[in-house]
Amino acid sequence: MSSDPTVADAPGRPDVPGSAEDSPFRSERTARDEAPQFVLPLVVRIEKAAPPARTDALETAARAVLTILSDERALGDGEWAQAVRDWQDARIRKVVRRARGAEWRRAEALPGITVTGKSAEVRVFPPVPLDGWPKDLVKLQVSGTDLDDPEPPVDADPTAPMLWLNPDLDMSAGKTMAQAGHGAQLAWWELSDEERAAWRDAGFPLAVRTADPARWSGLTTSGLPLVRDAGFTEIAPGSCTVVADHPALRS
Fold first, then answer.
1. Fewer CB within 10 Å of terminal CB in the chain, N or C?
2. Is 116 left (phi over 0), alpha (psi -120 to 50) or beta?
């Protein structure tokens, strides 16, 4: 349920990470690889008797990433701001772990933000060093659990922000949650301050859906932010995983 550093293709804003030549998502080795490496931890609550629906978990994870990026504690002189800057100055890594019962209660006691969907709960934490996870998070399992949708997801609002998944890839729920988070982050970076504020004030509405195979090729060449995975886990290097389709970015 982890996500390796990714390559990202996106039209660039010069004032945000990932938009210039020195992108944290580039596939080749850069100076970012020499910097201390950090990871953004996300923990999804999966109780045996009531696991969340897969699509809701994906959407909740994406909103959790947006929530911490926009939180005042992650900005300016906020208490998490330096950790977020250090994370964005190196490779962008996200790891999704799962918890239930007492594990979840211990995770909730740590500094972070819990984001709730229809059935999913995801807690996002400020970035930590790769080898510096809090003990109550490092012991949580990364793999071994997948999620299903009890019913097919309803058609999404075409005017809302969309994260389109590659229909040809088979990824675990955790891997896909991290990839959805990458896509949401790329969209966030590309928006103006006014567009970001409007999205935040609306509660970060978004939908995650698997693209129609006939549309996928066109989406990847549309100029919208595109996530490519480094391929260290589950899928081949360079695989296109997510296209971030926000109304403000559509040409």
1. C
2. beta
Confirm whether 135 is domain-assigned. yes
Containing domain of residue 242, as a range? 35-140+156-247
User: What is the domain-level CATH number for residue 179?
Assistant: 3.40.1490.10
Is residue 169 a part of any domain in this protein?
yes
182 Rama class: left (phi>0) / alpha (psi -120 to 50) / beta: alpha
- Tokens 């996300």 appear where? 42
Give the pLDDT of the chain (251 residues) as one tens digit per residue: 555 444 444 444 434 554 444 455 444 455 556 566 899 999 999 999 999 999 999 999 999 999 999 999 999 999 999 999 999 886 788 999 999 999 999 999 999 999 999 999 999 999 999 889 999 999 999 876 689 999 999 988 888 999 999 999 999 999 999 999 999 999 999 999 999 999 999 999 999 999 999 999 999 999 999 998 766 677 767 789 999 999 999 86
DSSP H or E run through 215: helix 213-220
Residue 151 domain-assigned (yes or no): no
- Assigned domain for 24 exists: no
Q: pTM of the full predicted structure? A: 0.89
One-letter amino acid of 35? A
- Torsion, Cα 155 182 250 163, to 10 degrees, reads -10
Report in angstroms the alpha-carbon separations of 110 from 20, 42, 107.
34, 12, 6
Answer whether 53's CB lies under 8 Å from 147's CB: yes
